[in-house]
Design a protein that fits this description.
single chain; 15-stranded mixed sheet; 25% strand; 566 residues; alpha+beta; five-stranded antiparallel sheet; Immunoglobulin-like; 24 strands
């Protein structure tokens, strides 16, 4: 089932056209016998059921399993957004130039976009796919989540991608529906997407919450509600928002704003429990992610999946020469006669005569990257890996690669990596290792980053919470920090290990790394996080002088003690 012709034949994420002749023939036999589809999927689910499912993540791999890591960006705007300007082709070309393998076009949802925008964007997306065969170009949109912030929603390519996105936006967008306080409508929208997948109208659909702490309106119970909605459509959130250039000081020819445009204060619809520091980024990362023992960790401590990503949120980019000819006036007529509110897009960008330094965005791939581990490339494979949490993120090319492995020392034939769940015997010793490929060359700011430290964060899985607005978990802390200064002299990679002794209950581990230029004691004290990211200062936050990477977690689930174990 796991390899060879039969493995190819029953893997429905692989379309018929991509199968070998032998696998295509075998699939036809299975399909004709009624053994391919729901029945076979049900068999696979039953066969795979195990205590590891308590962690809501895939079971461990065989030792030595390796993945191809594809860099991407799931939050990108074009001239089809009311505050955008670039052509789809501009963003796709830039993403390829800056090393990405996949990307999602996510123009803002709203009345004009839901009426004509989705349909008009699709030919540009399909043309970009044809012209850039090495780039996976997804079509999606930025959802105005009812009663909350924005979110990326995207689907796998297929004959119904336009209609599915259009029906979703028309029926469940908070702006279109004028549903500014309807939390139930958000869950209903995710349920709608799950039904499109189960009904076969789209191969897959995913949602990620964008800039979740920016305005304080994504409450903990709403995030849990999205996570728990049917079909596992909502899989995570932006661990680091876009707009990373916004904090460059004005005396360095920057916008002098807040990094990520996180310069806000509580408002009437903000969740009252969030502290004031949650409205700022920390080392460029959202407070929900950057705080050890904070909201992200409180979600993971339930033993359920919720992953983090990073992206550009590119609208108009720092250092670019081009401008929107109408200055983002939705009712102005462009050089070719286009009016945004009438036509659903702006006229093409034009040369502006000077470098634009007041903008807060970078091109896709220029600074932020989301790395997804796949066994083989493809649209559905990327989406499946994202759902599985096989994801790590970085800023500024801090490192070239990350490989995390968790295994029990009593049974080393199996191991788990990011997003996975490893079953071990109660009382086992568990080895956690990370191998980091150090930056081999200059980043797009033309210097080679130097990794200074890698931190291992460990948290106990304590189960479901009674208060769904809780956003702390006291059992999570940094358990070891590895000094990486000077490791370059020993080669291009560095491996660090930590052993968890005598495992008695379920837990998870995750890593982060830094260039060490800005750190401070974490919000909950030095015993929890002695050297966490520092609060970004509004108007003085050069992103190139504060680089981090974060990995998603690996869960460890002990089973009953066996005779002879400690």
């Amino acid at each position: 089932m796991e390899g060879g012709i039969l493995g190819e034949a029953v893997d429905l994420s692989v379309p018929d056209a991509e199968l070998s002749p032998g696998a295509l023939s075998r699939r036809g036999v299975l399909r004709g016998a009624g053994l391919l589809g729901a029945g076979l999927s049900a068999f696979g689910a039953a066969a795979g059921a195990s205590p590891a499912a308590a962690a809501g993540a895939p079971a461990g791999d065989r030792r030595g399993t390796r993945y191809q890591w594809l860099a991407g960006d799931h939050h990108i705007h074009t001239q089809y957004s009311p505050d955008g300007m670039y052509r789809v082709s501009d963003q796709v070309r830039a993403a390829g130039q800056y090393g990405l393998d996949w990307m999602v076009i996510t123009d803002h949802g709203g009345e004009t976009h839901s009426r004509i925008g989705v349909e008009k964007t699709n030919p540009d997306v399909r043309e970009a796919r044809q012209d850039n065969p090495d780039m996976l170009v997804f079509q999606g949109l930025e959802w105005n989540i009812p009663a909350a912030e924005h979110g990326t929603v995207f689907v796998a390519p297929g004959p119904h991608e336009v209609s599915v996105l259009q029906q979703f936006e028309q029926g469940y967008d908070g702006v279109v529906q004028r549903a500014s306080a309807d939390e139930a409508l958000a869950v209903a929208g995710l349920t709608f997407l799950a039904r499109q997948v189960s009904d076969g109208r789209t191969p897959d659909a995913l949602m990620l919450a964008n800039h979740p702490a920016r305005n304080g309106i994504d409450s903990p119970h709403e995030i849990r509600g999205w996570r728990d909605a049917p079909g596992r459509i909502a899989i995570g959130m932006e661990g680091a928002p876009g707009h990373q250039a916004a904090g460059i000081p004005t005396d360095s020819l920057g916008p002098g704003s807040a990094r990520g445009y996180y310069g806000n204060s509580p408002r009437a619809d903000s969740f009252a429990g969030y502290p004031l520091e949650s409205y700022r980024t920390w080392g460029g990362f959202d407070w929900m992610t950057s705080t050890v023992g904070g909201l992200w960790d409180s979600l993971l401590a339930e033993g359920l999946p919720w992953w983090v990503t990073a992206n550009s949120d590119s609208h108009s980019n720092y250092g670019d020469w081009s401008v929107n000819p109408t200055g983002n006036d939705r009712n102005a007529t462009g050089p070719d006669g286009r009016v945004f509110e009438v036509d659903g897009l702006y006229s093409d960008p034009v040369y502006g005569g000077q470098i634009q330094t007041g903008r807060g965005d970078f091109w896709p791939g220029y600074y932020s990257r989301t790395h997804v581990g796949v066994a083989r490339g493809g649209y559905r494979q990327v989406m499946s890996a994202m759902r599985d949490g096989r994801v790590w993120v970085d800023h500024g090319g801090l490192v070239d690669g990350v490989d995390v492995r968790v295994r029990a020392l009593s049974a080393t034939s199996r191991e788990s990596t990011l997003g996975g769940s490893l079953r071990v015997r109660q009382g086992d010793d568990v080895e956690v290792s990370i191998t980091v490929a150090l930056a081999s060359g200059p980043n797009y700011a033309t210097f080679r980053p130097e990794l200074a430290r890698v931190d291992l964060v460990l948290g106990q899985v304590t189960g479901a919470v009674t208060d769904r607005d809780v956003f702390t978990t006291p059992s999570t802390r940094v358990v070891e920090s590895f000094d990486t200064t000077g490791v370059r002299a020993r080669g291009g990679t560095a491996t660090f290990t930590h052993t968890v002794r005598d495992v008695g209950g379920p837990f998870y581990v995750r890593f982060r790394g830094t260039d060490g230029k800005r750190s401070q004691v974490g919000i909950y004290g030095a015993s929890i996080d002695p050297q966490g990211p520092a609060l970004d200062v509004e108007g003085d936050a050069d992103p190139w002088e504060d680089l981090w990477f974060y990995t998603n977690p690996v869960f460890v689930v002990p089973e009953g003690r066996t005779r002879g174990s400690r």
